[in-house]
Design brief:
This is tRNA-(Ms[2]io[6]A)-hydroxylase. It comes from Polluticaenibacter yanchengensis. InterPro entries: Ferritin-like, Ferritin-like_SF, tRNA-Hydrxlase_MiaE. By secondary structure, this protein is mainly alpha-helical. The two termini are 32 Å apart. The chain is built from 8 helices and no strands. It has one domain: Ferritin, core subunit, four-helix bundle (Ferritin), CATH 1.20.1260. The chain binds fe (ii) ion (FE2) (2 copies). The site of one fe (ii) ion has 6 residues, from helix 3, helix 4 and helix 7.
Length: 209
């Protein structure tokens, strides 16, 4: 009976986490409360990397109007997120710590196709971005529901909503340039890979991923 309830909860939650195959370990939210400085530092650098990655895509695919057009405002938004998180640190008398090695993002990059057609490489680059947005969204959702501090719950709710929108933009861009069946087939492989990766990675409260 209790297993049945757990299964039902899992499926309801899955619908809210943009197709991800693994829900974040519930211990994670508790671990994040050990050091808000560490959490906000890691979060700030995630936002910086999101902005930088969008700029790189604009540079690489400047001949594809929709990529340039859709990603220009996301660069501004992600940089705005970086500023918001840094302001939060400052307000609390905390410091922005150094950027750390991002094991999660590096493992995703390793899974990207290097050879193959321009289309296949573009697809993987867009799906990598979609996946990072989806997982970030899921993590922010966890924080927005699980933290005790009401201010921080609302703080993270705003990020959750914004990253969900970005996830959709990256998926839509993929569907614009690549046949739909190919997008969903490859997305399925990415989701599989990401769930295995999440399973292998240590649960750390000083990391967004
Ligand atoms: Fe963001
Ligand atoms: Fe984002």
């Amino acid at each position: 009976m209790s297993e049945q309830i757990a299964d039902d909860n899992q499926s309801i939650y899955q619908k809210n986490i943009l197709g991800l195959k693994l829900v974040t370990d519930p211990r994670w939210v508790d671990l994040t409360t050990i050091s808000l400085e560490a959490l906000l530092t890691d979060h700030a650098w995630c936002e910086q990397k999101a902005a930088t990655s969008c700029i790189s895509l604009i540079q690489r695919y400047s001949d594809r109007f929709e990529i340039v057009d859709e990603l220009m405002p996301i660069v501004t938004e992600e940089w705005g997120h970086f500023r918001l998180v840094v302001s939060e640190l400052k307000k609390r008398g905390l410091k922005l710590g150094p950027q750390r090695k991002d094991l999660y993002v590096n493992a995703l990059f390793d899974f990207q196709q290097r050879g193959g057609s321009v289309e296949s490489r573009l697809l993987d680059q867009l799906l990598t971005m979609a996946l990072i947005e989806a997982r970030s969204c899921e993590r922010f959702k966890r924080l927005s529901e699980g933290l005790e501090d009401e201010y921080l719950r609302n703080f993270y709710r705003r990020f959750m909503e914004s990253e969900a929108g970005h996830y959709r933009t990256f998926i839509d861009l993929a569907r614009l340039y690549i046949p739909e069946e190919k997008v969903w087939a490859r997305w399925e492989e990415w989701l599989e890979m990401e769930a295995n990766l999440m399973n292998e990675m240590a649960v750390r409260g000083d990391r967004i991923h």
